[in-house]
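Possible regression after last week's pipeline update?

I re-ran a chain I had predicted before the update to compare outputs. Posting the input and the new output here so someone can diff against the archived version. Not blocking, just want to make sure nothing changed silently.
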Amino acid sequence: MTPPDPSSPPTTAGGTPPAAPRTSPVVDPAPAPGPGPGSAPAAAAEHRADLDLDLDLLRAAVADVLGIAPEKVGDDDNLVALGVESVRVMAISAQLRKYRVRIGYAQMIEEPTLRAWWRLVADSAPGGAATDAGRAG
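New output (post-update):
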């Protein structure tokens, strides 16, 4: 038996070349650009989020989830009749969490109007996150 020629490509026992080794995708360990948690800009943005929620932003969140213009969402419109169902309530609730407002699904379904939801926002907002200028009256 002759030794393998070191200049020839390696082969498997069946005489075929071995498969190329699998490589993992290259992941850039560098952090994404922009402010990180705890940085001054990030803290300022979080602080602004607490203060900037108003009725118009709530209306815009509902309209965004429904895919309609905000002016089509009246304060006393039945939001279920406009198309807000369980999944959309959860999507709206997720948008409200950006403002550190947590409203229960059952509360939102119980009285599905913008005015009622604004009352829930005002009642649940930490440290007055809901601005007086945006209160429904």
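Follow-up from reviewer: compared with the archived run. The helical segments are 40-52, 55-66, 79-82, 86-97, 105-110, 114-124. Marking as no regression found.
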